[in-house]
C-alpha cells in the first residue's frame, strides 16, 4: 500500500539568527491526495491545504516559531472548483481547499510541536480521528535519536 510521507527537517542557520523547520510532504500514493494543515498555535502552513499529485512533493517552511503546534492530514476523493470550494470523501475541512478548521473523520493525522518543552520537538502519527491513508514521518537533521514513524494501515 502506498502512503503519504512527511519528511521533517530541522536546520539552524547563523549564530543566534534564524532557526527553521522544513516539512516535506511527498505523495507516495498512486492517486491524488489533498494535504491539509492546521496550526493549533502559530502560523498556518501551505495556506491550509493544496493538491498533491502522485509522486509529487512540496516543502513547507516554519521559521523561528518556538512552541508551534499543528497537524497534517491527507484528504482523499476531493473535488474543488476554481475558487477552492468543494468537498472531500475523507478528511474534509468545511468544504474548502484551504482549511481553517480541523478535518472530518476519518483522517490519519501527523502531529507536531516544534521547540516545545525544554526546546524539544515532538511528533506522532495518530488515529484519534480515524484512518484514511497510510502515513509516515521521517525526521532528518537536528540532534537526538529521532525515529522514522510509519506503517499505520487498516
From TrEMBL:
<dbReference type="InterPro" id="IPR001938">
    <property type="entry name" value="Thaumatin"/>
</dbReference>
<feature type="disulfide bond">
    <location>
        <begin position="78"/>
        <end position="88"/>
    </location>
</feature>
<feature type="signal peptide">
    <location>
        <begin position="1"/>
        <end position="17"/>
    </location>
</feature>
<feature type="disulfide bond">
    <location>
        <begin position="93"/>
        <end position="99"/>
    </location>
</feature>
<protein>
    <recommendedName>
        <fullName>Thaumatin-like protein</fullName>
    </recommendedName>
</protein>
<keyword id="KW-0732">Signal</keyword>
<keyword id="KW-1015">Disulfide bond</keyword>
<dbReference type="Pfam" id="PF00314">
    <property type="entry name" value="Thaumatin"/>
</dbReference>
<dbReference type="InterPro" id="IPR037176">
    <property type="entry name" value="Osmotin/thaumatin-like_sf"/>
</dbReference>
Amino acid at each position: 500500500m502506498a502512503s503519504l510521507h512527511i519528511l521533517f527537517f530541522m536546520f539552524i542557520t547563523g549564530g543566534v539568527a534564524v532557526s527553521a523547520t522544513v516539512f516535506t510532504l511527498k505523495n507516495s500514493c498512486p492517486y491524488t491526495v489533498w494535504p491539509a494543515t492546521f496550526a493549533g498555535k502559530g502560523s498556518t502552513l501551505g495556506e491550509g491545504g493544496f493538491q498533491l499529485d502522485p509522486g509529487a512533493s512540496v516543502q513547507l517552511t516554519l521559521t523561528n516559531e518556538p512552541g508551534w503546534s499543528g497537524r497534517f492530514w491527507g484528504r482523499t476523493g476531493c473535488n474543488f472548483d476554481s475558487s477552492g470550494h468543494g468537498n472531500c470523501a475523507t478528511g474534509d475541512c468545511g468544504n474548502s481547499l484551504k482549511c481553517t478548521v480541523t478535518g472530518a473523520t476519518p483522517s490519519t493525522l501527523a502531529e507536531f510541536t516544534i521547540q516545545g518543552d525544554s526546546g524539544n520537538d515532538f511528533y506522532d502519527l495518530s488515529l484519534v480521528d480515524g484512518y484514511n491513508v497510510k502515513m509516515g514521518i521521517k525526521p532528518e537533521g537536528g540532534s537526538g535519536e529521532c525515529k522514522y514513524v510509519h506503517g499505520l494501515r487498516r
